[in-house]
Each structure stands twice: as C-alpha cells, then as structure tokens.
C-alpha cells in the first residue's frame, strides 16, 4: 500500500528541508539495523521516504503524484483509490509514463551515474591574476573509499551475484493503470544497480564504496584569469559509486588594484606631469606589476599622450600584454606673484 512519507517521518507537509533532515536523522538513528532494537524494515521505509522528501524536485513530484510513483513494489489494488492520491495528472496531455518514471528514478535514457559538482571561490590580487598562482583548497568531499578502492568489499573478500536482481542491477515492475500495463525499470536497491554485492562489506565505508573526507587540493591557477571567470577541474568533484566523479568549479574574484585599469591582458595607468616637464621632457618612475620602471618623457609631450610599456601587462598563453601609460599635464592653479610674472613674460601661445 502507498505509504505517506510525511507520516513516516513524523513531519507536516509544510516541513522545511532542515526539519526533514533532522527527522530522518533521528529516526535513522533509532531504527538502524545495527543497533539493539533496530528494525531493518522500518529503516528501509524511512530511508525511502527521505530519498524522496530530502530532494526538492522529487518532493514536488511526490506532492503532486503521491508515493506510488516512487515505490518499487507496485501499487496493488486500485491505484486511484490508494492513499487519497489522484493520478489524473498522468493522463493529461498523454504524458508518457515510462519517461516520467525513468526520470524519477534517474534511470531513463541510459544516463550514467555522476557525482555532484563542487563549487569554491578564490580571491586573487591583480598580480596573482597576471602571473598565475598556486592555491590550496581544503575540501570536504565524498571521495572513493581508499580501503576498498570504491568497490565496497572488504579487501580480500569476493563479490557475489546480487540475489535481489539476479545480477541485472535493475528490477522491472508492471503496473496496471487505466492506460494499460506500464512497465518500469528501477535500480536494484540491494546492489545499487551494480548487479553484485561483496561477501563481506568494507569495514570503512560499510559497503558504500565512498567516504567523506577533508583533503587539501593544490591548484595551479593560470596566468591571465579574469574576475568572474570559473575554472573547471574535471573529476575533482564528488565521487559516486560506479560512476564518474563530478567536477570542481573555482570561481575567481580578482581584487581591483587602484593603480591600474584592466582590459583583457592590457593594463592602463596614468601619470601626472607639470607643463614645464611636458615642454622640456623628464624621467618618471612608473608603477608596474613588476615594480617601478623608469619612463622617459620626451620634450614637447602633449597632454593625453600614451606610452606603451611592453610586456608589463597581464600574462596568458601568448605571453604578457602591455601596460599603457597615459600622461596628464597638470595646469597650475596657485601661482606666486613671481611665478605669475615669469609666465606672463614667457607668454606661451599655441
Ligand atoms: Zn570501503
Ligand atoms: Zn541487485
């Protein structure tokens, strides 16, 4: 019969994700088969309930269609009477039930298992971004169990065919509905779709093949990354048994540097000079990411003139870009009597 998952977990239909998790934890603890007074059947039930209610997408489908959509054992009796759930939703628009079920069980279209992606952020200075930098990330991820090599078997223990599914990894169910018989395939829960189970389970991971572990990962951040970019490291996300690992996404934040404006691999900066310097020429100490360099301003330099410092910009695959220095000529605003007199005598015109 259809079970009410909310009742099973002892929570209301409006329970928050945290409440659902807390209720599941408490009950799982209470009924765990390894514990005195534990109850494997009950444990299985609450686990099934949590698999659905703990996943926002599945929960929404459950709220709409009811638990029969998720149960392995078929519905029995009149599917439209059980549990007070209305299946009319399945009829509308000729929805293909096989697809819906396949999607619900994550089993449709031959999709393979893949671990979740992991996302982290990294803050870089402009210099880090320009030259590239090595960074360490301390990540708490689900990783393949080291003891059993993710197989789930105690080292030395053999694998045997799963009796539940005769080694197929799936179970086929036939449901009678007013649309006719519908066959659905679900993953075998006993072997997690593997078709075989170890004779003795791994003592570290209890057969799950996975372990949660905090590990430090050193990542070489390449020169040239820009603010807002995401670096993807394939296979550095979470592990899943019998499938490929997810990816690690590193979102890059580059702190602005007040001295420079960046455009791709080019840096822009500006320097102020007086008009005597502009007229006669001078040497300037200019800030670059590599430290101070001397820039020669030739005599007769106009305001707004740009000077290119080759190879002082942001690095990348094709080497470093340039830094462009724009010269501003500052007109004096406060003149002494003497200065004023001298300028009047000079009477510089265009
Ligand atoms: Zn293990
Ligand atoms: Zn099986």
Salient structural properties:
alpha+beta; Helix Hairpins; HSP40/DNAj peptide-binding domain; 4-stranded mixed sheet; 3-stranded mixed sheet; 15 strands; elongated; binds zinc ion
Strand order of the largest sheet: 10-11-15-14
Rg, Cα atoms, Å:
34 Å
CATH superfamily of the domain at 1-95: DnaJ domain
CATH topology category name of the domain at 1-95:
Helix Hairpins
Helix coverage percent: 10-25%
Can you list the ligands bound to this structure?
Answer: zinc ion
Cofactor: Zn(2+)
Keywords: Chaperone, Cytoplasm, DNA replication, Metal-binding, Repeat, Stress response, Zinc, Zinc-finger
Domain J: 4-66
Zinc finger (CR-type): 132-214
Secondary structure elements and pairings:
Layout: H1 5-9, H2 17-31, H3 40-53, H4 56-65, H5 88-91, H6 97-104, E1 118-124, H7 126-131, E2 133-144, E3 159-161, E4 170-177, E5 180-187, E6 196-198, E7 210-221, E8 230-233, E9 248-254, E10 261-263, E11 266-274, H8 275-280, E12 282-288, E13 291-297, E14 306-309, E15 323-330, H9 337-346
Parallel strand pairs: 1-9, 11-15
Antiparallel strand pairs: 2-7, 3-6, 4-5, 8-9, 10-11, 12-13, 14-15
Helix pairs in contact: 2-3
The structure holds zinc ion (2 copies).
Residues 145, 147-148, 152, 202, 204-205, 209 line the site of one zinc ion.
Keywords: Chaperone, Cytoplasm, DNA replication, Metal-binding, Repeat, Stress response, Zinc, Zinc-finger
Domain CR-type: 132-214
Organism: Candidatus Uhrbacteria bacterium RIFCSPHIGHO2_01_FULL_63_20
């Amino acid at each position: 019969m259809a079970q009410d998952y909310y009742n099973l977990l002892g929570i209301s239909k409006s329970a928050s994700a945290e409440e659902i998790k807390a209720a599941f934890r408490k009950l799982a603890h209470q009924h765990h088969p390894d514990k005195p007074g534990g109850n494997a059947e009950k444990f299985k039930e609450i686990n099934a309930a949590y698999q659905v209610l703990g996943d926002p997408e599945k929960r929404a489908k459950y709220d709409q269609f009811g638990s029969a959509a998720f149960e392995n054992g078929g519905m029995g009796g009149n599917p439209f009477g059980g549990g007070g759930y209305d299946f009319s939703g399945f009829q509308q628009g000729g929805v293909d039930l096989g697809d819906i079920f396949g999607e619900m069980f994550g089993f449709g279209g031959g999709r393979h298992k893949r671990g979740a992606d992991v996302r982290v952020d990294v803050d870089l200075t402009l210099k880090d971004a320009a030259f590239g930098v090595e960074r360490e990330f301390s990540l708490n991820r689900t990783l393949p169990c080291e003891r059993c090599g993710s197989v789930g078997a105690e080292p030395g223990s053999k694998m045997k065919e799963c009796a539940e599914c005769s080694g197929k990894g799936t179970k086929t169910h036939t449901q009678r509905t007013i649309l006719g018989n519908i066959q659905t395939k679900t993953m075998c829960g006993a072997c997690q779709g593997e078709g075989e189970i170890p004779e003795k389970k791994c003592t570290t991971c209890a057969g799950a093949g996975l372990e949660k572990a905090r590990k430090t990962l050193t990542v070489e951040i390449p020169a040239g990354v820009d603010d807002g970019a995401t670096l993807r490291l394939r296979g550095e996300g979470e592990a899943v048994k019998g499938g490929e690992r997810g990816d690690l996404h590193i979102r890059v934040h580059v702190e602005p540097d007040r001295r420079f404006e960046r455009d791709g691999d080019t840096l822009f900066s500006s320097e102020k000079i007086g008009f005597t310097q502009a007229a006669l020429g001078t040497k300037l100490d200019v800030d670059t990411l590599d430290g101070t360099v001397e820039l020669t301003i030739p005599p007769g330099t106009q305001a707004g003139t740009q000077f290119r410092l080759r190879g002082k910009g942001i690095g990348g695959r094709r080497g470093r870009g340039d830094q462009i220095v724009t010269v501003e000529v500052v007109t004096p605003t406060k003149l002494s009597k003497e200065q004023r007199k001298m300028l009047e005598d000079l009477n510089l015109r265009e």
